[in-house]
Specification:
There is one protein chain. The chain is mostly helical. 53% of the residues lie in helices and 2% in strands. A two-stranded antiparallel sheet has the order 1-2. A hairpin with a 5-residue loop joins β1 (136-137) and β2 (143-144). α2 crosses α8 (95-108). The longest helix is centred in the last third of the chain and has 15 residues, at 160-174. It binds iron/sulfur cluster (2 copies).
Length: 175
């Protein structure tokens, strides 16, 4: 069922809306109530063609308290976290932070998350990076490693087990 169908039947969840706005206000002034629907966030969104709902419309849904509908929708996983919506908003409302809050809610409530996120998470937990260092192909079709391009090597945790425990503790405290 599409999110448009889901929201047409939805009921406002005022308490959840307050909770998310409370989390956002700790970051900056990022409270969805300040949004005046100018759509500057959507105009700069790198993923808006892929999103079932555009960023300014997500803020509108949050203002209406339709939280579950978004948490249960794939749209929260399509955002590529480029933070452009945060930079462009004249009202200091950040759709990206709203999406982070919704993703956290989805994880906490045991919803299935896309496999690529799980792979990224496992990589962060083991080496501190979303993916291991890759080789790149140059314009003249040569494959080169990072050091061959004169780039410094990236540091990785010397004690992966200790790193994993510390990182998990921080993540749990944040949620
Ligand atoms: S740019 Fe800011 S104020 Fe404008 S629609 Fe997006 S969130 Fe709302
Ligand atoms: S962070 Fe997500 S919602 Fe915001 S502009 Fe980038 S892709 Fe779009």
């Amino acid at each position: 069922m599409s999110i448009v169908d889901l929201t047409s039947m939805g009921k406002s969840q005022t308490e959840l809306r307050k909770e998310i706005n409370g989390q956002l206000s700790k970051l900056q002034d990022e409270i969805s109530d300040y949004c005046f629907q100018c759509a500057k966030c959507t105009a700069g969104c790198e993923a808006h063609k892929l999103l079932e709902l555009e960023p300014h419309k997500m803020v509108a849904l949050l203002k209406r308290g339709l939280i579950d509908e978004m948490v249960n929708s794939d749209i929260i996983w399509t955002c590529m976290s480029c933070f452009k919506c945060r930079e462009r908003c004249p009202q200091r409302v950040a759709p990206v932070e709203i999406l982070f809050a919704l993703k956290n809610m989805a994880v906490v409530s045991g919803k299935q998350i896309p496999g690529k996120y799980t792979a990224m998470l496992q990589s962060i937990l083991s080496i501190g990076l979303i993916q291991d260092v890759q080789e790149v192909t140059t314009r003249d079709n040569k494959t080169m490693k990072r050091d061959e391009l004169g780039l410094p090597s990236l540091s990785k945790p010397c004690d992966p087990a200790k790193f994993q425990v510390g990182l998990t503790k921080i993540a749990v405290e944040k949620v």
